[in-house]
Amino acid sequence: MLVNILMLIAGLAVLVWSADRFVYGAAAFARNLGLPPMLIGLTIVAMGSSAPEMFVAATASMDGMRDTAIGNVLGSNIANITLILGLTALLGAISVGSQTLKREIPLMLAATVFAGYALHDGLLTRAEGIMLAILFFALMGYFIWQATHNKTPDALDDDLESEIPKNVPTFHAIIWLIVGIILLPLSAGWMVDGAVGIAKFYGLSDLVIGLTIIAVGTSLPELAACVAGVLKKEDDLAIGNIVGSNLFNILAVLAIPGLISPGEIDAQASGRDFYMVLGTSAALAVLVLSSGAKKQLTRWHGVLLLITFIAYQIVVFQSH
């Protein structure tokens, strides 16, 4: 049991660190190529924050643990909104002014609804995995088009500009990219192996371990990014990290078990857990997009989100 706990902790620590280094190298390399900050932020940085989920999903799927991979996606999206955004809102009201985010949030909701359609019959097929992947690449194409053609100033521009590494030699950027690519799959394997050992010891299902321990662990990069964003008064960046990560999770990461290990899924995943993802995503959309000049998440919203997270964890553990 101690070995499993140490593997989980070591895997998580290296996973979070290597994801950060991967994003640092990729973003610096992209800046050196002359790509716009908005494009780098909406693609490379957003995808990098979902790198832990991607590698955990791939590792679990290759081990035949489809429910762990799916649970990681659903649990991460729930944790991002309720736990991460809840904790961040406690630091102070988060204001939203970016028109880019106001386009991304409906896209996140639409992607979530499609994921629900894919899961509703208790199966995740390879065809559905391919469709999710196609939608992901279409979304990437849309972001690239928006970033290169939209000349209207956006509140997110300055936030992204300050976050992307400057004056990093291309050689150093490539080294960090390689380090990230090597360590991400290794650490994901340690984390999954440790989590599986703990789950078996306590009699937890593959789905529950994905929804809870692994989901919270792989959401830690978002927590760090959100807290840093709010402390720097870059509120749009904090919300953007959550929305971008959830979009990538629901399309790119959910596609992975469909492509690698298609088949039946736990009934709770397509029922209780999906509806929790849909409900929290819709709540975020209402909070951010509702009418009124001052669109912001207050400390009271943060408290409500944290209560929701705790209540959900209690329900998940009591049902197993």
Automatic annotation (TrEMBL):
Which residues belong to any copy of the Sodium/calcium exchanger membrane region domain?
5-145, 172-317
Q: How does it sit in the membrane?
A: Multi-pass membrane protein
Pfam families in the cross-refs: Na_Ca_ex
* Location(s), subcellular: Membrane
Provide the transmembrane region boundaries.
35-57, 69-93, 130-148, 168-192, 204-231, 237-262, 274-293, 299-317
Which PANTHER family does the record match to this protein?
A: INNER MEMBRANE PROTEIN YRBG (PTHR10846:SF8), SODIUM/POTASSIUM/CALCIUM EXCHANGER (PTHR10846)
- The name this protein goes by in its record: Sodium:calcium antiporter
Q: Which organism is it from?
A: Shewanella litoralis
